[in-house]
Fold this sequence. Notes:
Blueprint: E1 2-6, H1 9-26, E2 31-34, H2 41-51, E3 61-64, E4 66-68, H3 79-86, E5 97-99, H4 108-121, E6 126-129, E7 151-154, H5 157-163, E8 176-179, H6 182-186, E9 190-195, H7 201-208, E10 227-232, H8 241-247
Parallel strand pairs: 1-10, 2-3, 2-6, 3-5, 6-9, 9-10
Antiparallel strand pairs: 4-8, 7-8
The protein binds 2-amino-2-deoxy-6-O-phosphono-alpha-D-glucopyranose.
2-amino-2-deoxy-6-O-phosphono-alpha-D-glucopyranose binds at residues 35-39, 65-66, 130-132, 138-139, 159, 163.
Amino acid sequence: MRIRVFASPDDAALYVATAMEQVLRYEPNPVFGLATGGSVVPLYHRLVSLTSNEERWLDATTINLDEYVGLASDHPQSYARFMEERLFSRIQKRPGRIFIPDGMAANLQEECSRYDIILHEHRIDLQLLGIGVNGHIGFNEPDSLLQSRTHVVELKEETIQSNARFFNSSDEVPRRAITMGMQSILQSKRIVLVAFGQEKARAIADTVSGTVRTEVPASVLQLHQDVTVVLDSASASLLEHDWQAQETMS
Length: 250
Ligand code: GLP
């Protein structure tokens, strides 16, 4: 894993957006695995600044990690709406193909299978990830077992409480979600995980150091050969000194 620590989320966002712009420019049919959440907001802002007029978006495919079960795509807190507002409506040429799990599907198992076929047909060039306070990636929650393929997950209490900041109350947070599985994430050519703020420091320390364990799903990323973990000084604050001193770029 490479660790990059920046002075601010905005500096970090520029670094990641520039990496995405390069993929957009130089891959013949770029495939992006996309994430949602507060941490990626500055990143999409920068990406829009860099690529809003880029015609190459027409050749791009985007595949989102996850979606809440029971929220329609126009619900203010659905991830479909997040993507529309933060990225897709702000670039002049929309990606040729946009995939997000359908949280309203009548048959959720069929929806998971449909999504796995999409993932099978597209190798992701760059997978963007955030991380939950409990170390989840996508909505792959800590457990004694991790699922490899797209599945419906019961959200953990800490995830519900953490994501309640986006809803009027924690009662409104959906209890289930559809998420890409761990194997699909690990099959990406390159993975960039972003995390900002003190509340992510414990999860980040557990992710990059120590053993690979299902109780910290993001620690499985240690098994991938091309992962960059992009942090600010707060989220990096529990890392061993050497990591920061060697890898700080700003
Ligand atoms: C949700 C998403 C994750 C994301 C996490 C972190 O739980 N399912 O993919 O990584 O939020 O979000 P934030 O950046 O808002 O803390």
